[in-house]
Amino acid sequence: MSRTPIKAVIPAAGLGTRFLPATKAMPKEMLPVVDKPAIQYVVEEAVAAGIDDVLIILGRNKNNISNHFDSMPELESNLLKKGDQEKLDRVLHSNDLADIHYVRQGEPKGLGHAVLRARNHVGDSTFAVLLGDDLIDERDPLLPKMLAENAASGLTVVALMEVDPEHIHMYGAAAVEPTDDPDVVRVTGLVEKPNKEDAPSNYAVIGRYVLTPGVFDILERTEPGKGGEIQLTDALQELATTDGVLGVVFRGRRYDTGDRVDYIKAIVQLAADRTDLGPDLRPWLKDFAAQL
């Protein structure tokens, strides 16, 4: 039997309080990273991995997201009349990226609750979850490896990255055992944002997951944890001790846009690597850095 096509779920219902007042009326997922909103990079990553069905979990006042992926006839007509084909192509690209659906989370009750809101759309199938705070460089694909590991094993797969132990308290930390593949580990336990002394390792869970549908039943009975939120980590912990969870260790380029300083770094790094912006930006950066 052929494998059911994988769908992608992108939770985008957070309040974005770290970026206030910019996010007072604009979703944090729509903040530009160079010249595209952050969420477009995430949708493009899913599409590049062969996924063409995307569900975005929205919160209140997030209509800008659905507007971005919709047609804008007046803008498109004006660009066409001006003969600005390059900009028109870029606008049309965001319209036709994927078959994009939307559902509202209602109250911001945590990542686990946001994932649970995808149940009716996903059904009884494995699906991918991509968080908008983590941008994965298109030159270092991660999701295809995760999908391949899931296809081979039938298990839930999470993305892991080795971080400085001083920073592990910012992540979910995984207890792991090696496998025959140096880039794949077996996850035996998970702890949400532990102190350095209590962390089982410096393997941090980053924002990419390939989840089996059994996670929904677990989330249904998961009690709210820290901050009154339903934590996806708690459900993954149960899966790790029952069905089993694999971790794919990512060693490529990742940009954290959930923190203000890291968001600025992401813009600079991506712009400096671009052929249209880098030649002008890199010499300026060197001169600017020399003045500091």
UniProtKB/TrEMBL annotation:
It holds the Pfam family NTP_transferase. Its EC number is 2.7.7.9. It catalyses: alpha-D-glucose 1-phosphate + UTP + H(+) = UDP-alpha-D-glucose + diphosphate. Signal peptide: none annotated. The keyword Transferase applies. It comes from the Bacteria. It is an enzyme of class 2 (transferase). Residues 7-270 form the Nucleotidyl transferase domain. NCBIfam families: galU. This is UTP--glucose-1-phosphate uridylyltransferase. It comes from Microbacterium memoriense. The lineage of its organism: Bacteria, Bacillati, Actinomycetota, Actinomycetes, Micrococcales.
